Amino acid sequence: MTDDAFLRALDLPRTNGELVFEEPWQARALGMGVVALAELDVGAVEWRDALAEAIERHGHDPDEDPARAYYAAWVDALERVVASRA
Amino acid sequence: MHDHDHHHDHDHDGHHHNPRPASPEELRAQALEALLIEKGIVTSDAIDAVIDRYVNDVGPQNGARVVARAWSDPAYRERLLRDGTAAIGELGYAGDEGDTMIVVENTPTVHNVIVCTLCSCYPWPVLGLPPTWYKSAPYRARVVAEPRAVLSEFGVELPADVEVRVWDSTAEVRYLVLPMRPADTDGLSEEELATLVTRDSMIGTGLPLAPAAA
Prior knowledge:
By secondary structure, chain A is mainly α. Chain A is built from 4 helices and 2 strands. The longest helix of chain B is centred in the N-terminal third of the chain and has 15 residues, at 24-38.
């Protein structure tokens, strides 16, 4: 499964091995990303870089829920990757 | 996943109906999803399928089923220890990351722990994605140099006469720990037993839950 290799390369928020979502939209954002990146043929390295940049832009707020911060950056990165392919 | 049911609170035209006001992040995600659907890049059904697969299908529960079967069925346990790959395959779990699976059994005198000292090789088909600490440099180095100290930090205190064996995973060989069946579980079904099997107990950094705590 390409999806497996793809997600394995990422450091998704987890507890006891299970994905952690603070709110349902975060699980949807993950699913949307997996589908869109496969459809747009975005490779794991390109995505990891885009995500790392988005996480950097988002900044670190110790009071913010880590899953929220991660998936906010995820959506930001996905927007940019989609825009770059348009 | 405890909030799984909430994943289905959307309908299939991209609009969400949550009782609370949506956060800016959520609105942004919804807008992007609507755009991607409009462009024909994603469909709601495809997103649902991915969510179901990653949130519900792959994860330590696969390994927990393997362990519970081994606890319940001595013949399966024997096959599992003899040829982990084949026995795990019997339950339908296989994948590129699990090509050669070796199952190491905890006993009253031996406690096993798995690590990947070089990177983050992990028995993905049975345990899902590795936890962050498994990939961390301190765990990878210290579990080899001072396994008892590391186990103690995970809350696992072993009697002094128990031998600790550390197994270094590679790209070709992945290990899975078969923990000891907890006491007072004689009447439990395989399904009930599986709920006692934690991810960490199959890495060796934890023990299965006691029946009352499950």
